[in-house]
Design a protein that fits this description.
NDUFB2_plant/fungi; elongated; two-stranded antiparallel ribbon; single chain; alpha+beta; NADH dehydrogenase [ubiquinone] 1 beta subcomplex subunit 2; 2 strands
């Protein structure tokens, strides 16, 4: 495999090296962005996805005329 520099943990012949700090920080940041996006979309589209309302419900009147 790769070079033997740096610390790491060896288990059953496989060495997992310690990640660099920027890898850890970037990974946590991207994870946070992912969850914020998932929760934002769930707030926006959740009722439609769960079948609680139709996508065309709740948009209000856009001036398409009276429908009596």
């Amino acid at each position: 495999m790769g070079g033997g520099h740096g610390g790491g943990l060896t288990y059953k012949g496989v060495t997992v090296h310690t990640p660099k700090t920027w890898h850890t920080v970037t990974g946590k940041g991207l994870c946070a962005v992912m969850w914020f996006w998932i929760l934002y979309r769930a707030k926006q589209d959740g009722p439609v996805v769960m079948g609680w309302r139709h996508p065309w419900d709740g948009h209000g009147d856009h001036g398409h005329g009276d429908h009596h």
